[in-house]
């Protein structure tokens, strides 16, 4: 039944959005550079119109294009993403104290992994996969933790920024104040 539901959900997504909308959604969620073909496949749209949309997003400064490799890749402006996420955190209704507690929880989780695996980084944890005594489940667990660790490090930077710039990120409530 779950497979049927996901197929229905994907069908509804395709019916309710245009190809351009889907390309924009995929592009905004990129966490690493991807080719136009990869983005087109994720957006369930053909290559040529996907490339046109990606080029417009590059022209608008939303994406960057990298032609240095064997394939052209596209990736978001990570600074813009971080700023938008910090503003969402500021506007979310959470207090600075709640975000500070969340920041402490995230750093504690990383310290726990450092202690548990006797490593200092996600890549050092990945390096432990060469240990021949690990079974497949342990290897999978370490890979997943390394991915989570990378994600937590990104979140820590964004949450830390939102806390440090709490006052600056406050929405302007009086348009008259903005004009003065």
Automatic annotation (TrEMBL):
Organism this protein belongs to: Haloarcula nitratireducens
Pfam families found in the cross-reference section: DUF7342
Listed InterPro entries: DUF7342, WH_DNA-bd_sf
Protein name: HTH marR-type domain-containing protein
Region (Disordered) residue spans: 1-20
Native organism taxonomy: Archaea, Methanobacteriati, Methanobacteriota, Stenosarchaea group, Halobacteria
